[in-house]
Specification:
With 421 residues, this protein is α/β, with parallel strands linked by helices. The chain folds into four domains: 16-43 and 196-337, Molybdenum Cofactor Biosythetic Enzyme, Chain A (3-Layer(aba) Sandwich); 45-67 and 162-194, Molybdopterin biosynthesis moea protein, domain 2 (Alpha-Beta Complex); 73-157, Molybdopterin biosynthesis moeA protein, domain 3 (Beta Complex), CATH 2.170.190; 347-417, MoeA, C-terminal, domain IV (Beta-clip, Beta Barrel). It has helices at 26-38, 83-89, 178-185, 221-229, 246-258, 277-283, 318-337, 390-394; strands at 24-25, 45-49, 62-63, 73-74, 78-81, 94-100, 114-117, 129-132, 136-139, 142-145, 156-157, 168-170, 191-195, 198-205, 234-241, 262-266, 287-291, 293-296, 302-306, 309-314, 347-351, 362-372, 375-380, 397-401, 412-417. The strands form six sheets. Strands 8-5-7-6-10-9 form a six-stranded mixed beta sheet, covered by helices on one side. α1 runs parallel beside α7 (318-337) and α4 packs parallel to α7. The longest helix is centred in the last third of the chain and has 20 residues, at 318-337. It catalyses: adenylyl-molybdopterin + molybdate = Mo-molybdopterin + AMP + H(+). Catalyzes the insertion of molybdate into adenylated molybdopterin with the concomitant release of AMP.
């Protein structure tokens, strides 16, 4: 299927059926996308300040270069001493011989003495126990225990107890967030290697989006898709080609392809006299990964490839465009950035509605899920079709129903939640 589009000149629209090629089923479309992804080069790395790395994707494995803790340290404010010395002191207690704070390089503890020690301070050589301040009485500069039996190692964080030098800390492909900052900083890292953000262009087209058109329409998809796809690891640029001219559309497509890693178009992929996206791309040398998918909504969705660039051609109806972006574009971009896939079908529960498909396509139903008595219940969100934008604000997941299957009230179902990158 490397070149399934007939290279018909865009000026010749006498046979639009040339673009009506055999559809693929949903699972085949996903397999073709996965295969195409494996052929793409990895996104190059860049080094950025650690403080700016939240939301970015690690470009390499990170291993510990130092133990944590780097040495034995006190777990609390208290008094450090040798257990044997305290046992021998009896009722006399141990005399104080100094104070150790975090950041100090302490001298060895003098025999038969105790020292004040603060949280995080190094354990002085010769000490093998720390007792909390509230469990001692200090009188006449001598430390006496109260209701505490000294035990070797008490309240001491041992060198390397958290991890040793060489321990794997974070894998390549890890999305960094606030939880990882202290870990990386503990290894002396001020900069980190992350994948360069993927550049995505979103392009809508159609003369109806010209504000001077006789029946001008508000373009919805670029704003919706940009908001959906944008993240710290995805940089989105949107553009509207408010024209039905193949040449002007071609210029817009070339600009998007030149300055992006992935292009997402909406509209202009059917067989009407103003649907030019696919023939223009074909004339530019793009080949077809798949043309139309046996699914509802979203059947017209098509994926093209031009060199090392992937071009998602989504339907123009906002509801169908959103669904196709959720099911195809977002998982692809997630994998492209190096992130592991979201675990599909992670919502499991019972249906509160019945549904029987009327076509031989895989149906994706907008549903809302609630929890009742410890069990998830799925409710069908009413929709007037692929152009419905209000139903998207009420739905929380997509429930897949394959051709030949049906859903009954009380049926056990799985749904894919709406995701973000």
């Amino acid at each position: 299927m490397s070149d399934c589009l007939v290279r018909t000149p865009v000026s010749d629209r006498s046979n639009p059926a040339d673009l009506l090629l055999e559809m693929v089923d949903y699972d085949t479309a996903q397999a073709l996308l996965s295969a195409a992804l494996r052929e793409l080069p990895s996104v190059e790395a860049e080094h950025i300040p650690l403080a700016l790395s939240c939301g970015r994707i690690l470009a390499e494995d990170v291993r510990a270069v130092a133990c944590r803790p780097e040495t034995d340290i006190s777990a609390m404010d208290g008094y450090a001493f040798r257990c044997a010395d305290m046992d021998l002191s009896g009722q006399k207690g141990l005399p104080l011989s100094g104070c150790v704070a975090a950041g100090d390089s302490p001298e060895p503890l003098r025999d038969g003495t105790a020292c004040v020690i603060l949280t995080g301070a190094r354990i002085p050589a010769g000490a093998d126990c720390v007792v909390a301040r509230e469990r001692v009485v200090v009188a006449h500069d001598r430390v006496h225990l109260t209701n505490q039996t000294p035990v070797t190692g008490l309240n001491i964080r041992r060198k390397g107890e958290e991890f040793l030098s060489g321990t794997p800390l974070l894998p390549r492909g890890q999305a960094l967030d606030w939880r990882h900052m202290a870990l990386l900083a503990s290894q002396g890292m001020t900069h980190v290697a992350v994948s360069r953000p993927i550049r995505v262009a979103v392009l809508a087209n159609g003369a109806e989006f010209d504000c001077h058109a006789a029946d001008a329409r508000t373009e919805l998809n670029t704003l919706m898709l940009s908001a959906m796809l944008q993240s710290e690891s995805i940089r989105v640029r949107s553009r509207v080609a408010a024209t039905d001219s193949p040449d002007e559309l071609g210029e817009a497509l070339r600009e998007c392809i030149e300055h992006s890693d992935v292009v997402v178009t909406t509209g202009g992929i059917s067989v009407g006299q103003t649907d030019h996206v696919l023939p223009v791309l074909t004339r530019m040398g793009a080949t077809c990964l798949f043309r139309r998918v046996r699914m509802r909504p979203g059947k017209p969705v098509t994926v093209m490839r031009l060199g090392r660039k992937i071009i998602f051609c989504l339907p123009g109806n906002p509801g169908a465009a959103a669904l196709c972006a959720q099911l195809f574009v977002m998982p692809f971009l997630r994998a492209f950035t190096g992130l592991p896939p979201h675990r599909e079908n992670r919502l499991a529960g019972r249906s509160a509605f019945a549904f029987t498909p009327t076509t031989d396509a895989t149906s994706f139903l907008p549903v809302a899920h609630t929890e009742e008595e410890g069990e998830i219940r799925f409710s069908l969100i009413p929709s007037v079709g692929a152009s419905d934008v209000r139903c998207l604000t009420r739905a929380t997941a997509l429930l897949r129903v394959d051709a030949g299957e049906s859903v009954d009230i009380g049926s056990y179902c799985r749904a894919v939640p709406f995701t973000d990158l």
